[in-house]
Amino acid sequence: MGALVWLLIPLGAAVGAGMWGSWANRTRKVRGDGPELDGYARFREAMEKPRSRT
User: What is the pTM of this model?
Assistant: First the structure.
């Protein structure tokens, strides 16, 4: 009986991982690349500015 309990632990973990995976991979509202590209453009502008010596 003890061996059966030890086999149920990984089975329960696998079921839990499957449920979490299906929840994490659910369909979400797609944002597109707009915000990321805007942030990258701001980063490039900041890096191209000449440094001021103080």
Answer: 0.47
